[in-house]
Design goal:
By secondary structure, the protein is mainly alpha-helical. 52% of the residues lie in helices and 11% in strands. It has a single domain, classed as Rossmann fold (3-Layer(aba) Sandwich).
């Protein structure tokens, strides 16, 4: 893959990540919308390694926080605390967020075997 193709794809993902937050903001602003807790991470972890770069979840949390909208998050990632703690703390103070950390195993050897990264 060429550098220009890689850069082009990265820009497309970045644009889509911004579009996701904008779409959520529009949806929450609809007069017919009735707030109910949104569950994120029940099927796929929202804090995938690519989240560090594209900040999709962070942008979504910013929209939810601004709208005072409740959210529940399930993740295995420490990024939820390392990067988003201030925002989540603010939301928690308003009773808007619950975070659950999923632990697959406490056995380090088994964890490495299960979650081995392949390039």
């Amino acid at each position: 893959m060429s550098i220009s193709t890689t850069v082009s794809k990265a820009r497309a993902v970045d644009a889509k990540s911004k579009a996701a937050a904008a779409a959520l903001k529009r949806e929450l602003a609809e007069p017919s919308y009735r707030p109910r807790t949104i569950a994120i991470g029940t099927n796929t972890d929202p804090y995938q390694p690519i989240e560090r770069r594209y900040r999709i979840m962070l942008r979504i949390l910013e929209v939810l926080s601004a709208a005072n909208h409740p959210v529940g998050i399930v993740t295995k990632s420490a990024l939820v605390v390392l990067r988003d703690l201030d925002l989540l703390s603010s939301m928690a103070a308003r009773g808007l967020v619950k975070v659950a950390l999923s632990v697959t195993t406490l056995d380090r050897k088994l964890a490495r075997a299960i979650f081995e990264r392949r390039n």
